[in-house]
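Notebook entry, structure prediction.
Reason for the run: the old model in the group folder had no record of what sequence produced it. Starting over properly, with the input documented here first.
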Amino acid sequence: MINQSDLTGKLAIDANSLNDLRQSAKQNSPEALKATAKQFEALLMGMMLKSMRQASSQDGVFDSEQSRMYTSMLDQQLSQTLSSKGLGLADVLTRQLSNTVAAAQSLPEQAAKPGSASVSNMEPAIKAYQKTVDAVIGVNKSAVSLPAHVQAFRDQLLSHAEVASKATGIPAKFMLAQAALESGWGRKQIVGADGTVSHNLFGIKATGSWKGRVVNVSTTEYVNGVPQRQMEKFRAYDSYADAFQDYAKLMRNNPRYENVMANASDAKGFAQGLQRAGYATDPHYADKVMRIINTSLSG
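New structure, fully documented this time:
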């Protein structure tokens, strides 16, 4: 059995706490009822905080995809902490649900047998209570999972990633994570001097074997762990589908990525394989890829 403090004292993204809530709901626990009401109130506060954030600019010089992600997580935790003090909504919901549970528990023993009319009449109300818990769990998971720009990036590119996944065996979300890191979730794509989009989501450079279009841009490279700006040539594609196809070809055919392919099903092995193979010079490249996989694309 859980108590009211179990949820308000834990992380807002703690899925285990929500699963405990579902199990207690099956037993019509009063503690679970209170916790459910608190979660609804936390959800309302979360929506209020989200609206406040959207009303202010988050594109300042110190803002980034990482800072926005952690701000969103902070707001979710803050809403749960504030709900422990309450706005009063949780108390109202608790009273309403308590009436249903109390009525079911007050049935005479002889009337509470399976198939009795009294139990049959109460079943819809009991199921409604348990659905309330499931609703809280579902909405919390969706609220935690994907910010709008992440969802848009995923929706636009998921089909291309799935095609590349079939060709390589690399999970689609692993490739989406790497593309997100390389392109800043599509907001910092490589473009030509005339503003033409290169569709190069993976930051693949144009080496001597490349016969297609090329874009020259300034990029950050790490030399002995120190970031430096350099002019480099990058491949340009006609579409995002072409970019994913070329990435899949690179992973399959280039011997330096054999270890990546061998560990394609494991997020840590995939990310560390990329770094060991020298895909990027950033010493924290593997950690960044894994962080995106485990936080923004974990669903």
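Summary: Residues 117-145 form the longest helix (29 residues).
The old model has been moved to the deprecated folder.
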